[in-house]
Amino acid sequence: MKQRDTKTLKIWSAGCSTGGEPFTLAIIILEHLKVMAGWIIEIFASDISEQVLAAARQGVYSESTLGSTSRNLVKKYFDREGDKFRIKPVIKNLVRFASLNLNDGRKLSMYSGMDFIFCRNVMIYFSDEVKRQLVRNFYNCLRPGGYFYIGHGESLHGISKAFKLVYF
Ligand SMILES: C[S@@+](CC[C@H](N)C(=O)[O-])C[C@H]1O[C@@H](n2cnc3c(N)ncnc32)[C@H](O)[C@@H]1O
User: Which CATH topology does 7-55+92-150 take?
Assistant: First the structure.
């Protein structure tokens, strides 16, 4: 039998907090990537706070946290536990959580070959100098042609010229 080419998609949610972002990405991939056969999906999620990582690994959310998530998606990807909702293993198992200080450049180099990096609403806490170094490190962690997502209220103006702004 002819072997199918392996395709790998690597995504990193840097500063993932309680897991909303990486689990949302996992749900989007399962919903939209119809043909997953032959694909290896790796979603890395990191944060500096052990407290938020513990909550993320639990994957249990209140109705208000789920916000505007459609009822259909909630039914499909969460198990109800009283007044809480637990993310199903099919999603949870796609995400690998790890403790990481984004200012530790040496450790960041372990996150290489990413197709997508999300670092939203995290760099707001950093000085411009720290941001410049971090964005350089993120750039080096991306595959050529990879995408870097920042928060709506954030900008790379004065921080980096390595990225081209694109709209979808
Ligand atoms: C406002 S939350 C953003 C969460 C998520 N990215 C979002 O947009 O919903 C900021 C997160 O950044 C994390 N954080 C702050 N400083 C960090 C650092 N030096 N390294 C890694 N994570 C950090 C915090 O622990 C927190 O979970």
Answer: Rossmann fold (3.40.50)
Q: Which of 38, 143, 49, 151 is nearest to 100 (CA)?
A: 49
- Rounded to the nearest whole angstrom, what is the distance from the C-alpha of residue 48 to the centroid of ligand 1? 7
Q: Is the CB of 55 under 6 A from ligand 1?
A: no
Instruction: Answer yes or no: are the C-beta atoms of 122 and 102 closer than 8 Å.
Output: yes
pLDDT at 1: 41
- Atom 26 (ligand 1) nearest CA: 17
CA distances from 155 to 4, 102, 158 (A): 41, 18, 9
**Alpha-carbon span 122 to 132, nearest angstrom:** 13
- Reading phi first (left if > 0) and then psi (alpha if -120 to 50, else beta), residue 120 is in beta
pLDDT at 4 over 60: no
C-alpha 49 – ligand 1 centre gap (Å): 8
pLDDT tens for 30-58 read: 888 766 667 889 999 999 999 999 999 99
Structural domain spans, the chain: 7-55+92-150
Query: What is the maximum alpha-carbon separation in the chain?
Result: 55
Q: What is the DSSP letter of 161?
A: S
